[in-house]
Each structure stands twice: as structure tokens, then as C-alpha cells.
What does this fold into?
Amino acid sequence: MMFVDKKKEELFNHLKELVTQARFNNYVKNINQRTRYLTVVLEDIYQPHNASAVLRTCDCFGIQDVHIIENKNEYIINPDVALGSSKWLNLSNYNSKKNNSPEVVAGLRKKGYRIVATTPHTDGVKLEDFDISKGKIAIFLGNEKDGLSDYIINEADEYLKIPMYGFTESFNISVSAAIILHHLSYKLRSSKIQWPLSPEEKSEILFSWLRDNIKKVELIEKKFYEKYR
It folds into this structure.
């Protein structure tokens, strides 16, 4: 593991001894499949079932970061659907302003992400034709009733749509997320793109996973740091 802070590295090694080798090996196996090349942004999702199902899908496909915009609707997780998936993800909630979408778009662009709006109402690229090689991808998904806001539609760099052949004009949002992430994850992992996390990112996330899954970790850390006084 790679830590700049040697004290933190020592704490990591100490916490690692408090979980079974099988559990830690499972953490390592999963961290090696995580990516930030793809990220998901949810704008104003209000149904707990859908909100939770999307998190579960992101975890299943190794998407580490999920950005949650709460302009009008509070994002509520249904634990029976999420099945604990949220504790393995980096969730960023944006709810301090009346309109938080511009902050999210600007932040992701600064990190080099393409802003990709998913909508059946715009002349977008079909999922199977979407080019993953042009740079990191932020997939924006709108709410169940209205879809994405006009702001996101107008600001998007690209538009993505799932081909449909029936009377219904759109998929359920959790179904859309699953279809899109399955396809793009498969293409990404089959490509020569450097999609895995950096060694530093892996270390930090493994550290957080340990902290989140060890009982009374604050007390353990307090006793650990006492030796430095």
C-alpha cells in the first residue's frame, strides 16, 4: 500500500490485522476492479427503491464514485434494496444551494470528465456506438418523472441513448443505469484504456473500507495514536 503519511500507513497495517485474511483478500480483489474512469451522477432522484438500486448497480460494476444532486428531492436509500452497497462507494451529495447542478458539472469538468446526458429525447449516440476512448465519462441520469434538468441538457458535452423498440418511451432509471453500466464497463475492461485506480487511490479506499467495517474503530485509533504522544 502507498501512503505519504507513514503514521497512517502504520495505522492501516494495524487495522488490517483486525480483520480475517479472507476478508482483506476480498477487499483487495474488489479494489483492483474499481474504476474512476466512469462515474455516475444522479440528479433529483426521489424514489428510494430506484436510488438504492442504482447504488447497488454501481457497486456491482466497480464504479467507485457516485455524485448525488439534491435540488428539489432528498436522496433516500432503501437499505433492503441497496444491501449495504453504499458503504463500498464514495458518495458525494450536493444540496447546499437551490440549484447544485452547475457546481457538479464544473467540478467534474475540472477533473477531466466528459459530461454525458442520458436522454431519449435528444439526437444522441446509441449506447453500442458510444466512444469510451475520448476520456473519462460522467453519466448523468435524471429523475423518474422529468428526466434531466434543462441545465444539464444544455451543458452536456455529449448525449447517450439506449435504443428502444416498444411503445414505452423510456426505461426505469435503475434499469437504464444497469444497461448503460453493463455495456460501458464491458467495453472499458476489454479495452487498452488505463481504467484501474492508482496505487494511492487504492490505498485510501482500502483504508476507508477497513475503518467502516471494524467495530469501535474510533476507540482503536485513539489507543493507537496514544503511543505518539
Q: What stands out?
A: DSSP finds nine helices and seven strands in the chain. The beta strands are 38-43, 65-69, 90-94, 114-118, 125-126, 137-141, 158-161.
